[in-house]
User: Fold this.
Amino acid sequence: MSVSGQLKYRAFLSYAHADASWGKWLHGQLEGYRIDTDLVGRETAAGAVPKSLRPIFRDRDDFAGGHILNDATIDALDQSAALIVLCSAFSATRPAVNEEVRLFRSRHPGRRVIPVVIDGIYPDNFPKALLFDITSDGVIGDRPITLLGPDLRETGDGRSLGMAKLVAGLTGVGTDEIVRRAARDARRRMRNWVAGLSAIAVSLAGLAGWAEINRREAVRNFSLAKAAADGLVFDIAQGLRDVEGMRASVVEKILAMARGTFEKLADAAPNNLELQRSRSVMLNEFGDTYTAQGNLPAALESFRASHAIFERLTKADAGNTGWQSDLSVSLNKIGEVLVAQGNLHAAMESFRASLAIRERLAKADAGNADW
Assistant:
């Protein structure tokens, strides 16, 4: 069916609060997905192919405490052409996820329901309402059903093929056609990135060499070099988060190259504290990129390297509240990765250390609303 002029949302994205990082990533990918113009308007079993998949409804509320859905959520379900369910060992136990599936299937039996696997083993990672039939009065029955969907894990379809399958399910276009078009676009983007990154690598190498030669002119030279290097490496880190079809190993190699070159620049001026701060901020940016790519070990290493620099900076200038705040942020980022890895004890320690810094800042400056 077509949602144009009938329903508000292309799909409702259902997930457990513990899987919010996956939910945020998938929501961004779907809303940013570009549909080729020659496909737009093609009639399929799902209706006419739209210009985009926007809007996708993603509920930000935490439903971990119960199964009663609020009116806004029920209305969004009714206004959605399809239901996407993030399936994990955790979401399978959440009453609210099960209730969203039960309600959608019972009220709109003709609309598409697409399970998307991110964790766990079938059937233990599926809520009950995805495993059995729903009676006409909305009761979950005992007759098993089979709903197919992509597995975004590297051991399954992976993110690229999984996304293609999901887009195919939402638009009615064949998966093979979506995959071919995605591969073509990925090759084009890769060529553009390789050309751009080659130029950036040359620029960074030149900056590092120039700074080493001119390090005795310290302040002015390094200020110029730092400003240029900041822009280059942050463009790399932030840009790579939006590039589909690029393998994690390629991203890691590019970031390692940029990091190594920037660190040569920083090592040439070990007493330039602002340059050292830029180095740590860069590591945080790279950590965010690794997280977006699903490379949690690399993200944790990058965040910890950033934290180590902030620790040295705060010891060098204990009165600098900005650096104290940066130290707190780095601890939060470490904690978030540890949560994603399931290391809750270590994550709690990191979060508590971050909170302790914030409490000291707030106590020292009670009139500062940010603290």
Q: What stands out?
A: Residues 1-5, 62-66, 218-222 have pLDDT under 50 and may be disordered. The radius of gyration is 24 Å.
